[in-house]
Amino acid sequence: MPLTDRQRALLQLISQLNQNLISDTLGLVDFDLDLGLDLGISLGGNNGNTPPPDNEPGTPPSTITELLSSLVNELVEITTPFGTITGTLLQVLDDYIVMLENTGDRVLARIDKIELVNEL
Question: What are the residue boundaries of the structural domains of the chain, listed by start?
């Protein structure tokens, strides 16, 4: 089911808050206050956390990170050896992803443990 513009805007704000919480938790305080809230959301990116895919348009992703980056702000199902995670993919970082489950819980999963990715 496609997201509305309002839902996408809320996901972007949650993603920004999540990034700040993770940075603070890891002791990597990054004080970047951007009050120029541009809510004309662009869904083609990955929030600047990993380089965009180098693929030509129409070429399928060649790595799991490229695939995940193309699914940011989308509803996905991720399978790991520890179980299945279903929710909205918020961020793709260097070695892990951040997802928001329907319950409101934030889940972190190491990219090297991801076995299967399904877009819902």
Answer: 5-119
CATH architecture of 5-119: Roll (2.30)
Q: How confident is the model at residue 6 (pLDDT cuts 50, 70, 90)?
A: confident
pLDDT of residue 7: 72
- Cα distance between residue 43 and residue 79, in whole Å: 23
| Residue 12, beta-bridge partner list | none
- DSSP-assigned states of every residue in 42-103: --SS-TTSSPPP-PPTTPPPSSHHHHHHTTTTSEEEEEETTEEEEEEEEEE-SSEEEEEETT
**Are 78 and 116 in contact, with CB atoms under 8 Å apart?**
yes
Total length of the chain: 120
